[in-house]
Design a protein that fits this description.
The protein has helices at about 30-45, 90-95, 110-120, 155-160, and strands spanning about 5-10, 10, 20-25, 50, 60-65, 85-90, 100-105, 125-130, 140-145, 150-155, 165. It is α/β, with parallel strands linked by helices. It has a single domain, classed as Rossmann fold. The strands form three sheets. It has a seven-stranded mixed sheet, with helices on both faces. Strands 1-2 form a two-stranded antiparallel sheet.
Length: about 180
Amino acid sequence: MLVSLFLMGSSFAAPQLAIQSASQTIVEGGADGTTRGVNRVLGGIISYAKWPGERPGAARTMCIVGDPRLTDRIAPAVAGGPTISVRRMTAAGVTGGGNCDIIFLGQMPVADRQRLIAWVRGRPVLTITDDDPNCSFGAMFCLSGRTGSVSFSVNLDAIGRGTLRVDPRVLKIGSDGGGR
């Protein structure tokens, strides 16, 4: 990433992050519709991630840290793909050997979020949050919800720092019904 420093008087402009907005998935009304929409989008995102040395159909573990904003019933399913087990953990539990393939970052103290994002760099861990509307805190994917839809943004810089490979077709999830 090129970093340019622009001096205007006494203020500095921050470098632009490479953030790509993606399509949205329309959901049925109410909490159940939002939960289904979130899980459909999560399953789609996971289906486009490839871990180094991945065995086809290998089970994946999603660790939820903090309190998710969109739903507390996270249970992504990948059509024709791996089983995703979900467990709640603390930031210390994750960095202390939680064996997480995917980390879902809910609302949490800033220090915990920063520690997790720093710990993930260079590791094959997919990071997703629903507590970063600008997708600027370092997670790879950032979900957001509005009445009747769930959408997401992609932080290309965060993906570039990791060892996972993410197929660019992930940006089409919302327009094709989620997943492949």
